[in-house]
Structures are given as structure tokens and as C-alpha cells.
Write a structure and sequence with these properties.
Layout lengths: L6 H14 L19 H10 L6 H7 L5 H15 L4 E3 L2 E3 L7 E9 L5 E5 L12 E3 L4 H6 L10 E8 L8 E10 L5 E7 L5 E5 L7 E3 L12 E8 L6 E10 L4 H11 L8 H8 L18 E2 L10 E7 L9 E7 L2 H4 L5 H9 L3 E2 L4 E2 L6
Amino acid sequence: MARAPRSNDRKQQARKSAGAEGGRSGGKLPGIVHGEVPPREILLEFIQDNPDRANKREIAKAFGLKGDARIALKAALRALEDDGLLEKNRKSLTRPGALPPVTVLDITTRDVDGQLIGRPAEWLDENGVAPAVLIRQPSGSDRSRGKTPVAGIGDRVVAKIFPNKERGGPAYTARIIKVIDKRKTAALGVYRAMEDGKGRILPIDRRGIEMEVDAEFRGDARDGDLVEVETVRMGRFGLQRARVLSVVGSVTSEKAISMIAIHAHGIPYIFPPHVLREAEAAGPAGMTNREDWRALPLITIDPADAKDHDDAVHAEPDTAPDNPGGMIVVVAIADVSWYVRPGSALDREALKRGNSVYFPDRVVPMLPER
């Protein structure tokens, strides 16, 4: 006598149905029993493994659901939402804490193999640490045809997200769709004026390259000045073109020595646009769970020529009878944690910088001044 399939058998059949269905063609696959809503575990697995098909229509197509079965699917998905196992993200469904099919990423670092790693630009604190995403680099042919944009550390991109099937690596991989914020990189060199009105940039670093500056891009640079430049374009032939960003001054000046040290040691000193926008959007700290000390006549303990003023003190006699001659001392420190939330663009930028760097004439801050 034939027996009814056990629940585990049904799960295996449903898993085959979801995993074996080819692309978006909707074609039926051999060995698949279509037409029955799968167990919730299989639904969740399908949504996790197929983020670009995580909507009611595509799920119904994958499992061959029609008529009343589609109504049952809608109820099953709603029940998963009610239980907190699914979240609705625009027109698609995601597991809580999972990345949507298309996500804005900040490229933050490289792994031990040199592959770029990104993290979501927006992430809720209650979901824990933002997941790492391995960026799929375009092949040589794709790069030459312009099929996949090329990005680097510090860029913000829109990317297509895929679950990573390899063990031990990041939870996701991604293919870049578009670079929306390109981190500007600057170089340092000595400006040499040419007779035709153009200029040449002679690198101060032996690893640097000589560049050419068109007359309209030289700014206030004069022959012999140490200048900061950015590349603008590069033709098929000739030198790399550059634009003068700022004139540092004489190569022997204090300012020049600081800039040379910054470039020589690769110290990041330009904040990406999205980091600055996040800093500008920050509002004042709320008073919930705080004591209001604004009436205290605090005195800063940073000297007048300090690069930042974020520490202060207040002292007054202690009137308690059991502490004769004692003082009550209050030390106030800027509450940076209120503005720098875990996983935010500010947090990732600060992590990359590690600390502020002080020079005689300037400071390269870990966080924007705002």
C-alpha cells in the first residue's frame, strides 16, 4: 500500500521545486509537485536564496500555485509577517535583518585576497552589526565594455545583492549597478609652468606619475609651487590630465611638510560626500535619560590653540558634613556616541581612520568638524 508522504518528504519536494525552477521563465521542472503551498521553512528558505524573486507573484510561479492556492500563499506570507519572520520592503519580502535585492553599499575595505568589501549604507541598530558584502569585480572584457562600473574604497554604490553560497565568507555578494558617490583622491606634486600656458605636475613620491594641467585647470598655481591635484581624464595617448585643487605653497614650508607626510603615509583627509551629508543632518542630542548640566559654568581644559575643544571641567566646594574641605569635580566630555551610531557612514569612516592625526599646522580629524 502506498503511504502518504511524510512532512520531511514534502519539504524535500518543495525545496526541489523552488531550487530547480529555471530563472523567470516559469517553466515547470521534472519531479516537482506543483500547486501546493510549501511549509513555512521552505518559503523562508526560498525568499532568502532568491531575493530578486521574493514577492507573491514570483513565489506562486516558483511553486506552481494557482487559484485558491494563491490565496493560501497570501495568508501564509501574512502569517510570517505577523510572527516577525518576514518584512515587507516596498514590493518585495525580506527576512528581518536581511538585505533587499538592490541595496546602497559603502565600500569600506578589502579582504585578505584583495577583494572589495562593502556594507549597507543604512542599517538599523537593532539588527546588530551591518553584514559584510563581497563585491564581485568586473572581468577585463566587462570593464572594457563598460558593462559593470568600477568602484574603489570610499565609494558609495547601488548594487544587486546575492546570497553567498561559499562557507566562511561574507553572507552576501554583490554586483555593482551604479556608482553614486565617487571618493575623490588627490595627489601632491610640484607645478612647473610650460611656455604654452599649460603646466606639468612633477610627483613628490617616486611611485607617482607626471601629469599635465591644462591652462583652465591650473588655478593660482605658479612655477615651483607645491600643489594638490586630482585627475580629470586620461586620453588614449599622452600624460594623465589633472586639475589643481589647492596651492600648498613653498615645498619647504610647514604646511607643505604636513601635506607631504599625509600623502606619504596614505592618511585619509578628505571626507566622502555621503559622510559629510550624514554629519550635516545630525540634530541636537535629546534629553531623554540625561541630566541637564547646561547651567553649570563649565570651563574648557583645552588650550586656546587646541585643534578641538571637547573636554571641560567644573569644581565647587562640597557642602557635605562628612567631607570637610572637599570639592565636587565634574568632568564633561563630548558625547560623540550620540551622533556616531554603530554601522553608520560616520562610524565606518571613523573605523577606517582609527584616530585623529595632529600636525603643527593642522589636524586630520577622525570625524567631520560639524
